[in-house]
Design brief:
Blueprint lengths: L1 H4 L18 H10 L1 H5 L27 H16 L13 H4 L7 H18 L1
Helix pairs in contact: 2-6
Length: 125
């Protein structure tokens, strides 16, 4: 992915590992602590998709989403843009277990939500 933005590979890259023992609030907190890096000019990128359930893809119509995928995606978009610190509460959404059958593709969004929440806190000061 970064090769398109930085074809000369002239930027340092650090990848975070996900600690599966941590709960969603702890991942959000880690994201907020990364804000100090951003203040020093470090680019922080999150990639992936909030809804990630390969077992439920309709291979006959892969570009169409089920109603539960659309509901969860819309809820995630609303939380991330309006109240990023509330992102861990998405695990209480009625469609969470189908949209996020394993946390490995959801946890990175918590880091980005933590960064966004920290930015919101700084703007309010």
């Amino acid at each position: 992915m970064l090769i398109h933005a930085f074809p000369n590979a002239d930027v340092p890259v650090v990848q975070l590992s996900i600690d599966a023992r941590k709960n969603f609030d702890e991942h959000l907190e880690l994201g907020s602590r990364l804000a100090a890096l951003r203040e020093r000019g470090v680019l922080i990128v999150g990639s992936g998709n909030v809804v990630h359930n390969l077992h439920a893809i309709s291979w006959h119509a892969p570009d169409l989403g089920f109603d539960w995928t659309q509901r969860f995606d819309e809820a995630a978009r609303a939380v991330l843009t309006e109240e990023p610190a509330a992102t861990p509460r998405l695990q209480d959404h009625v469609d969470f277990n189908r949209a996020v059958p394993t946390p490995d593709h959801f946890v990175p969004v918590l880091y980005i939500a933590g960064l966004a929440a920290a930015a919101d806190d700084q703007r309010e000061r």
